[in-house]
């Protein structure tokens, strides 16, 4: 039995192994460059570092204010994800379980918004934010992230909440619960896997963003970490190891998130997709 399944397994293992290597190699290459001296990198950029020089990490962290950029990203991402989950879960509950006129059309609008690239709304969004005095402010960037990623959040949570039996909602209403009571006592606890999954994905989207953050936070003191990395490339264009150290610092939170929460991400998305 094992011998007969061998060739078919190799057809899966080999492509997946190559894909894994293609994914891991850039990270290993960046980590290796980040521990080199400038001279070692110029002489041979692909060789292993002779000694691990962690001072490149401290230079990247201290010289260009990456600590401030890191704090900016943490504040913005935390606020944006909290708002996305709050608004998205309420909207998803209404679209999935509350019967009202126009709900199908509203769900279609949310789905259509997924296919609108940010570049289409970039100019009007920047003008609205500038007129409201929200440029170079935390609330401005948070609202921009909410506007960009809310359709995705609503779409996934709606597909999950549609799997909740309507009998539970009807029984809760008969027991005297308001719609808010049903949302708080039933939907939030039952939707915890999907909320965790979508929250992690939204956090990764916001953390890795460059375009929206560059548009909404142009001044140096308000930059997020990813925008700060781009400025590091311009300031240290001849010092590639320092730039690689900055890239490594910015990528570590994302890597740690995937390593420790990959099962929650997969379980939440799969549950919302297959039960809905």
UniProtKB/TrEMBL annotation:
CDD domains xref list: TM_PBP2 (cd06261)
Origin superkingdom: Bacteria
UniProt cross-references to Pfam families, sorted A to Z: BPD_transp_1
Keyword annotations of the record: Cell membrane, Membrane, Transmembrane, Transmembrane helix, Transport
Domain ABC transmembrane type-1: 70-261
Keyword Mitochondrion assigned: no
Any single GO BP term: transmembrane transport
Key word Signal present: no
Transmembrane segments: 12-34, 69-93, 105-126, 138-157, 194-220, 240-261
Location in the cell: Cell membrane
Recorded coiled-coil stretches: none
Alphabetized PROSITE patterns for the sequence: ABC_TM1
InterPro entries linked: MetI-like, MetI-like_sf
Protein topology in the membrane: Multi-pass membrane protein
Similarity section: Belongs to the binding-protein-dependent transport system permease family.
Record-given protein name: Binding-protein-dependent transport system inner membrane component
């Amino acid at each position: 039995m094992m011998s007969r399944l061998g060739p078919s397994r190799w057809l899966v293992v080999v492509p997946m192994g190559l894909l894994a290597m293609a994914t891991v190699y850039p990270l290993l290459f960046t980590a290796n460059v980040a521990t080199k001296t400038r001279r070692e990198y110029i002489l041979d950029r692909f060789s292993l570092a002779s000694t691990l020089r962690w001072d490149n990490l401290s230079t990247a962290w201290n010289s260009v204010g990456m600590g401030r950029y890191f704090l900016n990203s943490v504040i913005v991402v935390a606020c944006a994800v909290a708002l996305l989950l709050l608004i998205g879960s309420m909207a998803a509950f209404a679209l999935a379980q509350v019967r009202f006129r126009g709900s199908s059309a509203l769900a279609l609008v949310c789905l259509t918004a997924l296919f609108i690239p940010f570049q289409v709304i970039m100019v009007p969004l920047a003008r609205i934010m500038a007129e409201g005095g929200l440029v170079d402010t935390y609330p401005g960037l948070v609202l921009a992230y909410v506007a960009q990623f809310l359709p995705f959040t609503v779409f996934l949570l709606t597909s999950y909440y549609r799997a909740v039996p309507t009998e539970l909602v009807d029984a809760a209403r008969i027991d005297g619960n308001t719609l808010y009571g049903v949302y708080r006592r039933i939907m939030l606890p039952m939707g915890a896997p999907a909320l965790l999954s979508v929250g992690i994905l939204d956090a990764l989207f916001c953390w890795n963003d460059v375009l929206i953050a560059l548009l909404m936070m142009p001044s140096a003191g308000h930059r997020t970490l990813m925008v700060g990395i781009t400025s590091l490339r311009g300031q240290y264009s001849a010092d590639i190891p320092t730039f690689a150290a900055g890239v490594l610092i910015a990528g570590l939170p994302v890597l740690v998130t995937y390593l420790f929460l990959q099962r929650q991400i997969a379980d939440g998305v799969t549950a919302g997709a297959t039960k809905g």
